[in-house]
Amino acid sequence: MENIEYLFAGFAVFWAGLFIYLVLLQARIRNLTREIERLEERLAESEDTPARPAAPSTPPREHTPAERREAAEQGA
Amino acid sequence: MNLSSLVGTVLARADQWRWTVMPPLVGVAMMAMIVGALVAAPREIVQGEVQRLMYIHVPSAVIMYAAFFVTAFSSVMLLWKRDMRWDAIARASATVGVFLCAMVLLSGAIWGKPTWGVYWSWDARLTSTLILFLIYTAYLLARSVAGPLDEQAARYAAVFAIIGVVDIPIIQMSVRWWRTLHPQPTVFTPDPALPNEMLLVLLIGFVAVFALAAWLIMLQSDTERASQRVTALRAEVDHREMA
Amino acid sequence: MGPVLTVLRKDLLLAWRNRSGWASAAAFATIAVLTYSFAFDLATGDVRPLLPGVLWTTFLFAGVFAAGQSFQDEVEDGTFDAMLVAPVPATAIFAGKLAANLIALLIIEFAQLLLATILFDVGLFTPELLGIVVIGTVGYVSLTTLLSTMGGHVRGRSVLLPVLVLPLLVPLLIGAVRATGAALGLESGTAPWMLLLGVFTLWSTLASVLLFPVAVER
User: Fold this and answer.
1) Which of B116, B230, B238 to mutate to test the interface with A (most CBs of A within 10 A)?
2) A16: Cα separation from own chain's centroid
3) Distance (Å, whole) CA B229 – CA C106
4) Which residues does chain B have within 8 Å of residue C140's beta carbon, measured at their own beta carbons?
C-alpha cells in the first residue's frame, strides 16, 4: 500500500486527460454543427439561383443537420 | 474487391456504430479494465500498488503506435486516391495518437517516480516516445496552418506523416545506441512471464484502449469532415451571394 | 542528367543572385559558433568533448535556416511554380535543388570548420572528418529541401520548418556527433555510428527523391 497515491495519480491523469479531450471535441462538434446549419439556411434562402458549384471532395453522403444534432446531444 | 474498397467498406460499417455499439462497448471495456486493474489483478511484490498502472499504460503505448500507423496508411491512401476523407482520418488518428502519447508519457512519469526515484530518465524507450510525440505534434501543426480543404497542404502533411512513420525504427535504433554510452539500470526489464491473472487483465486493457481509440478516431474524423463541410459550404455561400 | 544540370545551374544562379540570404546563413553559423564559445567557455579548458555537438547543432540550424530562405526566394521569384509546369521531371527539379543547396551549405560548413580549427586549435581537416561532414550534410539537406517546399504560401512557415525537421533528424544528429567525436579521438561508445549515419543518409535521400514528385503534384 506504500505507493498507492501514485497509482491514484496515474489513473486520475488519464481520466482527466480523456475528459478534457472529450469536452474540447464536443465543443468543436457543436460549433461546427451550428455553423453548418447556419450556412445551409443561408444557402436555402438563395435557392432560386440555379448556380450549383461543386464543392471539392465533398462525400457522396452527408449527415443531415438533424442527425448531427442528435449525435452531438448523445455525446454530451 | 481491392484493398482500398475493402477497408472503405469496413470503415463505413464501423462508422454507423459510432453512437450505437461503440459508446457502451467502450464504457464496459474501460470499466472492466479498471476493475481488473484495481481489484482483480494480484499485487505485484516488488513495485507494489503502482504497478497496476501497467494495465492502462502498456496498452496505450501499443495502441498509440497503431494510431500513427493508421495516420501513415491514410496518408498513403490520400496521396493515391486524392480523396479528402483520408485526410480527415489521418488527422483524426494522429490527434488520438498524440493524445495517447501524452497520456503514456504522463502516466509513465508518475509510475517512474516511486519505482526509479525520478519522473523522467533518458532511457531509450522514453526518449523515442518523446520524439514521436514531437513529430506528430508537428504534423498536426503543419496540417492546421492551412484550411481543411487545402489539398496541397494535405498532400505535404501526408508526405511528412509517411516520413515520420518510416523514421520510427531508425530513431529507436539510434536512441538505443546513444544510451549505451551512459549505462544505467534498464527501465523495462523483459517481464519474466507475467502470471495468468495479470495477462488476462492486460488483455482486457488492450481491448478497452483499442475500443476507446477507435471510437475517438471516429468522432475526431467526423469532426474533421464537418469542418471540411463548413469550408465547402462557406465557399458555396460566397459563390451564390456573389452571383 | 541534362535537366538536373539545368536545374542545378538555375538554382546556383538563383543562390548567387540571392546571395544575401546565404550570406545571412553563413553569418548565422559563425555567430552561433562564437555564441557557443562564450556560453560554454570553449576558449579555456578542454573544449574537445563539446566540439562535435557545437559543430553539428550549428550545421543543422544553419541548414534549416538556409533551406527555408532559399525556397522563400524561389517562391517570391515565382520560379518554383514556373518550373513545376515546365516539361521537366519533378525528380530532376528536386535533384538540382538538392545539389545547389548541398554545394552552398558545404561551402558554409567548411568555413565553419576552418574557423573552429583556428579558434580551438583542433585539427578538423582530416579525411575521415570531412567524409562525416559530407555524408551527414547530404542526409539532412535532402530532408530540409523536401520539407522546405511545405506550403510555400503559408505564413509562419519559417518557424514551422525547424519544428518539422529537427525531430526527424535526431538519429542523424546522434550518429554525426558521435562519429565526429570518434574521429577526434573522444570516448564515443562502441556503436557503429558511421553505419547509422550512412543508413540515415541513404534513407532520407531515397525518401526525399521518391516523395518530392508526389508532394508537389497538382
Assistant:
1) B230
2) 20
3) 47
4) none
For chain A, the maximum distance between any two Cα atoms, rounded to a whole number of angstroms, is: 73
CB-based burial of residue C119 (10 Å sphere; 0-12 exposed, 13-18 middle, 19+ buried)? middle
Q: What is the ipTM of this complex?
A: 0.89
pTM for this entry: 0.86
Given its phi and psi angles, is residue B4 left (phi above 0), alpha (psi -120 to 50 degrees) or beta?
Answer: alpha
> What's chain B's Rg over C-alpha atoms?
21
DSSP C25-81: HHHHHHHHHHHHHHHTTTTSS--GGGHHHHHHHHHHHHHHHHHHHHHHHHHHHTHHH
Supply C115's cell numbers: 574557423
Going by C-alpha positions, the residue among C95, C152, C107 that lies closest to residue C134 is C107
d(Cα C137, Cα C54) in Å, to the nearest integer?
15
Q: Which of A5, A14, A31, A68 to mutate to test the interface with B (most CBs of B within 10 A)?
A: A14
Contact C218 B152 (CB under 8 A): yes
Mean pLDDT, residues B71-76: 95
Quote the radius of gyration of chain A (alpha carbons, Å): 21
Q: What is the DSSP letter of B57?
A: H
Strand partners, B44: B48
Please give the torsion angle defined by the CA atoms of residues B10, B15, B18 and B22, in that order, rounded to the nearest 10 degrees. Answer: 10
Alpha carbon distance C73, C64 (integer Å): 14
Residue of A2, A4, A7, A43 to mutate, testing the B interface (most B Cβ within 10 Å of its Cβ): A7
**Measured between alpha carbons, how far is B157 from B163 in angstroms, rounded to an integer?**
10
| 8 Å CB contact of A3 and B237 | no
Judge: C164–B138 Cβ closer than 8 Å, yes or no: yes
The CA distance from B240 to A47, in Å, is: 9
Helix%, strand%, coil% for chain C, nearest 5: 80, 0, 20
Question: Which residue from C44, C25, C59 is spatially nearest to C137, judged by alpha carbons?
Answer: C59
Residue C105 has pLDDT above 50, yes or no: yes
Q: Tell me the C-alpha to C-alpha distance, in Å, between residue B84 and each of A31, A36, A43, B54, C25.
A: 21, 18, 23, 37, 38
Q: What are phi and psi of B44, to 5 degrees?
A: -75, 140
| Secondary structure (3-state) at C28 | helix
Question: Are B174 and C154 inside 8 Å of each other by CB?
Answer: no
At which residue does the C-alpha cell 504534423 appear? B139
Give per-residue pLDDT as tens, B139-175: 999 898 888 888 888 999 999 999 999 999 999 888 8
How much is the pLDDT for A64?
A: 53
Chains A and C touch (3+ CB pairs under 8 A): no
Cα separation, B226 vs B148, in Å, equals: 10
